[in-house]
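Sequence and structure are no longer studied apart. To make this concrete, we show below a single chain and its fold as C-alpha cells.
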Amino acid sequence: MTELCNHIEMEAAPDAVFKVVSDLDAWPRHLPHYRWIRVTENHPDHRVVRMACYRGWIPIDWVVRFHVDSSTRELHFTHLKAFTRGMHVVWRLEPIRDGAATRVTIAHQMQPVIERWGGFIAERIIGKFFIEYVATRTLKNFARHFSGKTGNS
C-alpha cells in the first residue's frame, strides 16, 4: 500500500479550521479549483458524495463515502469508483503554537486496486499528477482563507 501525505500550517485554531474544512458543501466557495460537490446519499453516519474539480485545465471527478469524526477532528473519505476505488483519505488537524494555529495533514492510502495499474501509473500519474496537485491546492486555498489573503492557487 502506498501512502501520499500533504500538510500545511493554517493560522487559526483547530476548532475554527475544522468547522470550515468539514463543511464539504461549502468547498466550492472556498476552493477555486473545485467545480461542485453533489450529495448522492445521506446516511446517519456518512454521506456518499460526488466531487469535481480541475487539475489545471483537466476536469476530474470522483465518488466517495464521506464521514466526519468530530471527536478526533478528522475527515474520512473512501473512494468508491474508477481509478481511485478503495483509496482511503484522512484529514487530521493538530494544534500547534499553543493552539493558535493548526497543522493539517491529508494522508491518501492507495489500495492494491490502484497499485495494480503499475507503480509508474499509480505513483506518478494518479499520485503525483492528480492527487498531490489537487491536495496541495486544496490545502493552500484553505490556508489562504484563514490568512485573509485572496487569489487563486
Notes: The longest helix spans residues 119-147.
